[in-house]
Amino acid sequence: MLNEVLRALQSEEIVSGGELARTMGVTRAAVWKQVTLLRERGFNIETVGRQGYHLISCPDLLMEPLIEHDLGTVWAGQRVICYDSVDSTNRVLKKLASEGAEHGTLVLADEQTGGRGRRGRGWLTPKGTSIAMSLLLRPDMHPSRVPILSLGTSVAIAKGINAVTGLPVRIKWPNDIICNGKKLCGILLEMDANEEHVEYVVAGAGINVHLTEIPEEIQATATSLDIECGRPVSRIEIIRAVLRAAEETEQMIREGRLMETYLALSATLGRPVSVQGVRESFTGIAESIREDGTLAVRTDAGELREVMAGDVSVRGLMGYV
Fold first, then answer.
1. For the chain, percent helix, then strand, then coil, each to nearest 5?
2. Does residue 36 form part of some domain?
3. Residue 244 and residue 307: Cα distance in Å, rounded?
4. Of the candidates 261, 268, 135, the residue with the CA atom closest to the CA atom of residue 205
5. 119 pLDDT band (50/70/90 cuts)?
6. CA-derived radius of gyration, the chain
7. pLDDT tens-digit series, residues 288-312
8. Are both 194 and 259 inside the same structural domain?
9. Cis link prior to 272 (omega < 30° from 0)?
10. Structural domain range at position 312
11. Short-list 257, 228, 225, CA closest to 242
């Protein structure tokens, strides 16, 4: 009921409490109670004489109506599900996908307690500070083509962040989003597929937004949107921009144009890197990136080596990038 009242208030007009009560089939007192709850959550709602309620401003809360209102997408985020806290948005969305959730379903959490990054690393999302999001994709493609969706997800997030903040964000291979040499966002894609067909892909991302104090152990490598912008950044606007960009990147993939954009955003190409694998490590220059996600590195000895994201960690020789 709270979301229904909020959706009505988002009309940007004065909403009659009596009319809203009739439409929803409840009492005016029930409507007033929901308005009170919204005010307690930080919504600035004006009572206009005997006319009704007028929504003045909204807090930066992860609520379905705030994301859906005038979103303008065809499929991305047409169904949004928000949680106060989950262990992992990817895990929640994989369950929904197995139950038939549609392409473009978005799961968000204000707090994530058991998220994972690449190579099994933990990714925690403290309450109210970040964006923990997972988007369901049901692509009509062979499993061997899925790596391009990982590249596409990184492009969508980079474009979405830039659209809202203007920050010069880049992509550290394979799909970390960085700004000024520090990590803003980690991405993890998980899929269900057989030998011939992809059933679904869950594209998960954790974006640092309101973190103003970075833990000492990662201060040299991590940052947040608020830190980089020097002001609070709206999580809602970032999510909406990323969803719109996701539809753009899907079109790029379909038309074979994604790699041009990905390579233009790359912070890895042409740079000296250290490749750290389980059995061996080596250094060289990042020379090219292919659609299958492979990074080609010209080693210090002049040999061209190809590495895959799931097998190695790549760091800059002079820092994170």
1. 35, 30, 35
2. yes
3. 31
4. 135
5. very low
6. 22
7. 999 899 999 999 999 999 998 776 7
8. yes
9. no
10. 272-316
11. 225
